[in-house]
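HUMAN: Quick job: go over this next protein and say how the chain folds.
***
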Amino acid sequence: MRFSRAAGFAATSVIVALGAIGLSACKLEKSTGYIEIRTVPANPPPHLKLILDSEALEPLKKGAAVLRQQVGTHKLAVAGSGDPLPLCELVVKKDRITTVTVSLLDRPPRCQCRAATGTDAASNKKCEG
């Protein structure tokens, strides 16, 4: 039995169309990880706001929040009445949690990483998960 050229073209078109529909149904998600932010004290002064990548965060409930973020480096800052003061950089890895504690009692406020990179953790302002 021989197939005609038109039948072969029609079959190929159907396969390509089904493949395109299948690909469009797939959700291509970007790689994400998590940032856990804790504050000391748990209820920081209302005039201080945390800023992640130039976006102000809602006040943290009970001094902690877990945020889902794209993989990469994000900048954490604190703002009072003036310009934001950069605190540290948070490196988010795929399916990992980067934990940082922000001490607002100190002047100036500072970040404390659960696991710091480099040899001198005290002077390092980069947190990795």
